[in-house]
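W.,

You were right to be curious about this one. When I first looked at the sequence I had no strong expectations either way, so I just let the prediction run and decided to look at it fresh. Below is the sequence, 251 residues in total, followed by the output.
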Amino acid sequence: MLEGKKIVVVMPAYNAEKTLEDTFRDIPKGVVDDVLVVDDHSHDRTVEVARRLGLEVFEHDKNLGYGANQKTCYKEALKKGADIVVMLHPDYQYPPKLITAMAGLIASGMFDVVLGSRILGGMALKGGMPFYKYISNRALTFVGNILLGEKLSEYHTGYRAFSREVLLKLPLLENSDDFVFDNQMLAQTAYFGFKIGEITAPSKYTLDSSSISFKRSVAYGFGVLATGIKFILQKSKLAAFPIFDPNGKKI
């Protein structure tokens, strides 16, 4: 608990057997009430490792995609009565010890969503982020800020914390089951007027860090641009999209 708030960490997992335990060991147990793992039909021993660690595991019968994994993560966390949900990738790329700070910013009422930014503090390249990923990250973030009217340092981090209210209000089930889910969720957060904060999250890239192929990165980039354009059209009342419908499908 933190300021009377129940904290649940969710880990969307796919082939994370080599890094899951290290990630879990660094989670601040005095603050976090529950840790849930959602396995998207891994082909390695991810589920076995998670159960050995005593974690509650939810398994997809087939690979549904990163976005679909998150939908299950948030649904199960809310069932647990979570007041604050922190998404932490189990690939040990992001520092779990920052969970306390991220959850604290939400528990204090200052923000509704908190992002762990790899860009703040100039840590991305030092942590091993490939240069082409850094450039595309900066370019897409620049465009995202213009389209959404925000001033964030990074839209593409996988380290995020959400209040219960955000997860209940956003029409998350209208979002993609693929990687662009992340960007759609932030666009929804901005559209519905929730407050977004950031903290510096030094990341480290290793051979075991999760990554998507160049082809899928390009598809993600176009998806990000499409989301931003939809946001503008919706705000201007020139078109309507399910991802911004207040009556859209929710978790």
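Here's what jumped out at me. The longest helix spans residues 214-235. And, maybe more interesting for your project: The radius of gyration is 17 Å.

Coffee later to discuss?

I.
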